[in-house]
Design goal:
The chain is an alpha+beta fold. The protein has 2 domains: about 45-155, Chitinase A, domain 3 (Roll); about 160-225, EF-hand (Recoverin, domain 1, Orthogonal Bundle). It is built from 6 helices and 8 strands, in the order αββββαββαβααβα. The longest helix is centred in the last third of the chain and has 15 residues, at about 175-190. The radius of gyration is 19 Å and the shape is elongated. Mean pLDDT is about 80; it is low at about 1-30, about 35-40 and about 230. One of its GO terms (cellular component) is endoplasmic reticulum.
Length: about 230
Amino acid sequence: AAGTVPRRRPPRSDMARGLTLLLLPLALLVAPAQGEGGTAAAEEVQIEVLHLPETCSPKSKKGDLLNAHYDGFLASDGSKFYCSRTQNEGHPKWFVLGVGQVIRGLDTAMMNMCPGEKRKVTIPPSLAYGQQGYAQLKIPPNATLIFEIELYAVNKGPRSVEAFKQIDKDSDKKLSELEISQYLKEEFARDGKKRHPSAHDEILADIFKKNDHDGDGFISAKEYNVYQHDEL
């Protein structure tokens, strides 16, 4: 799911992007750091449901992996600043809900949404790009944004209990280097992409560097489950 609007950071190498297999789901339309003042509490996202399917299950929640298309407009003049259908050959975008991979207003707007549902949402500046705006997308300062969203899929996110248990072969509620190494090999075989022989070891080392906070050689359930939407 490439082709997303980039973060404001240097591009990552292919090996670094390999971390998405386990720990870093795909990002899109990410807002700059917030903190423009205390107006957020007084402003809310306005949600209009345009279509609700007869079967509405499962409903999205924090930590779920969503697949959606959406268009973004400036409320001031209706001009379109973003269209997911023109990115990545028109494929819908994948992202994890509620963890800051999209602007805060979208994280809120897409909660409790079901596959097949369509929404029109209005997001105030404090929950979008605030006083800074976003020049790359031609979003001016203090802009109210409107998104039309169509949600296709709601899946368990990469930090779900199910994913942890899948990797934790011996069920000791911690992930060893051997367990994660085996998981990486399985994922590499599944996606079929050619990688340099050193990619596996470099990705494995990077995973532990970023997630083994106490340095004990294992990634505990607490260290793994940063989204905290499930209990292990």
